[in-house]
Amino acid sequence: MNIDQADPDELAALRAAFDVDDGGESALGWVTVRAFEAEHGIVLPEPYRTFVAEIADGSSSGPPEYGLLPVAELPDDWGDDEEERDLSEPFPLTEAWMWEEDEAPADDADELLEQVYNQGSIVLGTDGCAMNWHLIVTGPHRGHVWLISDVGAVPFGSQFGFTTGGPGFAGWVRHWAEHKPWYDAA
């Protein structure tokens, strides 16, 4: 997984998976991507960065189930849209966390939970029922995709043991394209 330089083969696979053939009209363009990054104090990981700049900023086809959101949007079921998200602060997790099963003091868990939802990630989209896919943009898991739901958070990719899919945005999309329906596919 190379999060600093886009691989042309991965970009071709992303273009094919989303069936985008509009000559880049649905893409943000590099000026807008750089402005978004400057506003939030981040650099988007590749190949997602090039995808939104040159191919498409969102897609009505998946992944996830309800389509890929534009880079600056949140799912309709997100909740409090007024909550301030800080993409420049590191995403706090490096391993799965099921807060429904956690015995940590409530105050500690609430603070960490707030960070999980609001720090260091952009929301790629939703599979419904508050199951949201996040691309980590800052912190040790930068470039990885996580599923964050109402009961816990798990990283996507075979190295984490939750799926056979490859890591990062390209691996997540490839797994979807090869296994529709997709998440639980071996």
Automatic annotation (TrEMBL):
Name used for this protein in its record: Knr4/Smi1-like domain-containing protein
Xref: Pfam families: SMI1_KNR4
Top-level taxon of the source organism: Bacteria
Alphabetical list of SUPFAM superfamilies matching this protein: SMI1/KNR4-like
Lineage, top ranks: Bacteria, Bacillati, Actinomycetota, Actinomycetes, Kitasatosporales
Residue ranges constituting the Knr4/Smi1-like domain according to the UniProt record: 33-148
Listed InterPro entries: Knr4/Smi1-like_dom, Knr4/Smi1-like_sf
